[in-house]
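User: For my dataset I need records formatted as: sequence, then structure tokens, nothing else. Please produce one.
Assistant:
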Amino acid sequence: MSAPAGTSSVALFDLADRKLAWIGARQGVLSQNIANADTPGWKERDVTPFADVLAGKISMTSGTLVQTSPRHLLGTVAGADAGKLLRGETAPDGNAVSIDDQMVKIAQTDNDHELVSSIYKKYLGLFRMALGR
């Protein structure tokens, strides 16, 4: 039995929406890393890879509890596991953020955003053409 006509296109839009939500969550986490590059004790964070989100290992809508220091209150971080700490070199003040690494990740995320946006626009153009607009 085949899928109804247009189902694959709708699935593509759903996939694009999920990827854009993941990109937004990642940009937020990366910007926090850069903003706290001089904060003593700040550890670099990143989101769960999008492949894990696609596999259903984590939801984009549910937050996870994160406590970065025993002196902090528990809080929530929205998005794709935005509290995941990464291990790297640590400065004498305990800060583990590499601005160069963050800039590379931001550039990769920006490229992902451009790709998804362009695919989304192309499909919208195809729908408009099919409708005669």
